[in-house]
């Protein structure tokens, strides 16, 4: 979808205002690849994108499969293009064993001046191809210990700490998926890092929320990634009403995807539930092993298409600010989120 509306300048003013007037004025913090910052400094945020992803499988993954300088050269222009939209924070969803490279993100952060947030966690989705073999032998507690160590001491010898937990599950979920979700719950309770889970349909989403409940973790600690894949909007709204973050985060320029995003946002606006929505594009994807990193998808669809349509549809500055600034700040703020009944027990 290619749009050219005269209201583009107005949309840009909205985004600039969103950056300047963030709602967080307390001591809330988020963790970036260059260190901890106040959540209020996140500004306009892309809450689920990728710089590099390598699908070669966990047993073959290696940073030797690409040259970091080549990646920077290829990706940097796409990041620089985001400056015209006042994007200030980039949440990278690439997990360990799929090409996570915190030092690459740090270099890009230093070159662009943008905040980058990386993650800890393991990705069981894709029929477990991206899990290390030891995942089968370790308990949930032992896996969580690995992730907690990264959160407290940094990833490897980089000194770079993760800002959230990234996991992925299959549908239907198996014992392995359950173990990964349990490890995420344990890690959240120990670190306050939010859980972002590659999920898709409502079945595995609610299965995971049930596990969170068993561990006393509030739904507000959980991001249902790719929720827009679920065809029944009422199921997504039910999760949001529970406090779950619902991520409409695989927007592409194709008409059907833009239309789906507009329908979802309209539905959630009518339900007064835009306060639980995250939007992003799941774009980028430098692919090691492919010429020049393969087909790289730019990060601009939200801004050069969706924002213009939202403006034409009567969305207010406050509503756009809610979606692009306030919600990401709240979602990624480092804070242990317990169910109220569990929190009450703790305070007794």
TrEMBL record:
The keyword Hydrolase applies. It holds the Pfam family PTE. Keywords: Hydrolase, Metal-binding. One of its GO terms (molecular function) is zinc ion binding. SUPFAM superfamilies: Metallo-dependent hydrolases. It comes from the Bacteria. Belongs to the metallo-dependent hydrolases superfamily. Phosphotriesterase family. This is Aryldialkylphosphatase.
């Amino acid at each position: 979808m290619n749009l050219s509306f005269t209201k583009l300048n107005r949309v840009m003013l909205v985004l600039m205002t969103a950056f300047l007037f963030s709602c967080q004025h307390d001591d809330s913090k988020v963790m970036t690849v260059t260190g901890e910052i106040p959540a209020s400094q996140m500004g306009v945020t892309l809450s689920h994108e990728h710089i590099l992803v390598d699908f070669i499988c966990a047993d073959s993954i290696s940073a030797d499969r690409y040259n970091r300088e080549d990646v920077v050269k290829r990706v940097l222009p796409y990041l620089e293009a985001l400056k015209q939209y006042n994007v200030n924070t980039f949440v990278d969803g690439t997990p360990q064993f799929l090409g996570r490279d915190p030092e690459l993100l740090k270099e890009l952060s230093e070159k662009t001046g943008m905040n980058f947030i990386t993650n800890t966690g393991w990705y069981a989705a894709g029929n477990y191809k991206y899990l290390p073999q030891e995942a089968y032998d370790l308990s949930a507690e032992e896996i969580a210990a690995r992730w907690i160590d990264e959160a407290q001491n940094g990833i490897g010898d980089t000194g770079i700490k993760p800002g959230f937990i990234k996991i992925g599950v299959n549908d239907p979920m198996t014992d392995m998926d359950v173990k990964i979700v349990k490890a995420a719950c344990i890690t959240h309770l120990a670190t306050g890092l939010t859980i972002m889970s590659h999920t898709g349909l409502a079945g595995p989403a609610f299965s995971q929320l049930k596990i969170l409940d068993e561990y006393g973790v509030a739904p507000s600690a959980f991001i249902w990634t790719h929720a827009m894949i679920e065809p029944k909007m009422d199921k997504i709204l039910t999760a949001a009403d529970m406090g779950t973050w619902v991520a409409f985060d695989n927007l592409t320029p194709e008409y059907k995807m833009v239309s789906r995003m507009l329908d979802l946002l309209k539905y959630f606006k009518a339900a007064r539930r835009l306060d639980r929505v995250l939007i992003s594009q799941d774009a980028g994807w430098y692919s090691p092993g492919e010429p020049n990193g393969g087909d790289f998808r730019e990060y601009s669809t939200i801004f050069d298409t969706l924002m213009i349509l939202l403006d034409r549809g009567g969305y207010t500055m406050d509503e756009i600010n809610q979606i692009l600034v306030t919600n990401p700040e709240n979602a990624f703020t480092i804070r242990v989120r317990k169910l109220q009944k569990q929190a009450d027990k703790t305070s007794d």
